[in-house]
Amino acid sequence: MIKFLNDTVTDTFNTTADTSNTANKPAVVVDNHSIMADINRLFDSPVPSVPFVPAVPTDAADALIQKANESINKSNELLSPVSSAAVPTKPKRARKPKQTQAQTETSAAIVPPLTDAVPPEPQTAAVNSVLALKDLFSFKPLIETASINLPSYDSIPDTDTDYLFQTDVTNQILLYLFYPNRDCLWLAGDAGTGKTTAVLQVAARLRWGVQQITCSNKTESYDLIGRTTLVNGSLKFEYGALAHAMKYGEILLLNEIDTMSPQDLSTLNDVLEGKPLTVVQNNGEIIKPHPLFRVIATANTFGAGDETGLYSGTRQMNAAFLDRFRFVKVDYPTDAEMQTLINRRYSLDATVIQNVLKVVADLRKMLAGNEDGTGFSVPVTTRTILKVCGLLDLHIDPLTAFNVSLGNRLNKDEYAFLQRLVVDVFGEAVTRQQSKAIAYAEL
Which of 137-146, 175-184, 189-198, 385-394 has the lowest mean pLDDT? Predict the structure, then answer.
């Protein structure tokens, strides 16, 4: 545009006089007002005009042309946008994808705006402490003393003062918590062996926060990472157990992990190796693993499927996923450990406890199967034993206590076997006596 104006001014001067071959240069009359009027028409906006210049000699024409050009340049500066160097510009907003009119109306009508995910902060203050682990547990662990900087969590499990720790299992849990080496921990065992409780009670003694979720065949990776939900009329992203534990340094406890789809679990392979988690649903948030983040899984199998038929729904896990774990076998407590546990909870005669454990031992032999392929179809768990002892402590007769806790679940043949076994162990006089009435009950 500037070049065009310059050419216009030059052409105007050239039509007035020819100065190329004249010795005595004639005067040139320049009508600045007509030039400025042409410029105004081009821009449809007033431009400051150059003051009127009377007839001048052609020797001064070049100076006059230069002055006119300067005036035109100033006009261009007034009409052009302000320089970005002089005035700060607002940051550009990211373009939103185009929507149809129907989509726009639907979004405006029923979809509230998405708000930032702000989970409650579980940490309030760091606690620097040296833990004497041998004073926290009922045995002398492999790690006697540990220095750890734990936040003040709001997800610490409740402490069961009557809980009896199994030495081997507890040692493996402690070794993993303090020396993870980018591994995860897999606890496998029959139902009721106390896999989940062992982890929770170790965490309770250490004051370590736990995020736990029970998996199933319908559990998806989004259930672990988090979802966008409607809260008080607005959309809010709520962290799942994995994202929360990873962000704030808690133990992620995955119960019944072998019932979850291997395809969904394989998406966690990088996370289990200590790599960041990208939360696409929360605007691509990247969560780096907290130094205290740990992953412990419990299952009835070691990830190779169930051959006994007792645990339907378990699946064969992906080999690459299993490679991230350490594996620990969890068995039922020994008779000596069970006696100690029962004595901590109930006031039963030693003979009664021994009889209960004898019935359980014979039932578990049946569960293992006989040579003819027959066996007991229901596992006798630690929970079952404690239920029986709890009823016996209320003076319920042994036969009723076993039937209520276990027998009524059995098929006809197994039920008959249990009745004969209880009568043989406890004696017919004891098992046939009526339960004593409870005179007073208090909650």
Answer: 137-146
Alpha helices in 80-132 (DSSP H): 101-110
Let me know if residue 90 belongs to a domain.
Answer: no
CA 442/CA 299 separation, integer angstroms? 38
Structure tokens at 225: 């990472």
pLDDT tens profile 348-402: 999 999 999 999 999 988 765 554 444 567 888 999 999 999 999 999 999 999 9
Q: Residue 342: exposed, middle, or buried by beta-carbon count in 10 A (0-12, 13-18, 19+)?
A: buried
Final residue before a domain boundary, out of 79, 109, 134: 79
Assess whether 378 and 323 both reside in one domain.
no
- Looking at the fold, whether 340 and 323 belong to one and the same domain comes out as no
Contacts 24+ apart (CB under 8 A), 3-10: 5/39, 5/42, 5/72, 5/76, 6/69, 6/72, 8/35, 8/38, 9/35, 9/65, 9/68, 9/69, 9/72, 10/65
In a shared domain, residues 159 and 250:
yes
Asked whether the whole model's pTM tops 0.90, one would answer: no
Q: Whole domain around residue 59: which residue ranges?
A: 2-79
Q: Rounded to a whole number, what is the largest CA-CA distance in the chain?
A: 150
Among 329, 346, 373, which residue terminates a domain?
A: 329
* Residues 189, 138 within the same domain: yes
The answer, yes or no, to whether residue 87 has pLDDT greater than 50, is: no
- The residues pairing with 297 across neighbouring beta strands, listed in sequence order, are 186, 254
For the chain, what is the domain count? 3
Please name the amino acid found at residue 321.
Answer: F
Alpha helix positions (H), 47-194: 61-79, 101-110, 133-136, 167-178
